[in-house]
Amino acid sequence: MQQKMSKTPRPRRRPRDRRPGRWLLQDAKARFSEVVRRVRAEGPQHVTVHGRDEVVIIAAEEFRRLKGDLSGEALVAVMRASPYRGIDIEPRRSRTPVRDVAL
């Protein structure tokens, strides 16, 4: 009588995302320095969780540009272009009358 050997099923492995600029979360964590280098050299890098894009890593200057950071020169440019430039916005205050208080 021949005995059947039952094979235990192998756990299914997720295929690595081989598209450029895409990283599985565990790979991005393990090779974070490389991810940062590629952001600088190639542009945004996508990090996936369970096959879905979860985050995109971008360069700081690109983030500031997209965010519309109104600091420094950008703020000055917005203020110069304002239609309210030169308008006195300080509230007019009249003197409050002083009441005589009888003691």
What's this model, at a glance?
The protein contains four helices and three strands, in the order E-H-H-E-E-H-H. By secondary structure, it is α+β, with helices and mostly antiparallel strands.
In words, what does this structure look like?
By secondary structure, the chain is α+β, with helices and mostly antiparallel strands. The chain has a domain of 60 residues: YefM-like fold (3-Layer(aba) Sandwich). It is built from four helices and three strands, in the order E-H-H-E-E-H-H. It has a three-stranded mixed sheet with strand order 1-2-3. Strand 2 and strand 3 form a beta hairpin.
Q: Round the Cα radius of gyration to an integer and report it.
A: 31 Å
- Which CATH class of the domain at 22-81 is shown? Alpha Beta
Q: Terminal Cα separation, in Å?
A: 121 Å
Succession of helices and strands: EHHEEHH
Shape: elongated
CATH homologous superfamily (4th level) name of the domain at 22-81 = YefM-like domain
Estimated helix fraction: 25-40%
- The number of strands is 3
Number of helices: 4
What are the low-pLDDT stretches, counting only 5+ consecutive residues below 50?
none
Highlighted features:
single chain; 103 residues; alpha+beta; YefM-like fold; three-stranded mixed β-sheet; 4 helices
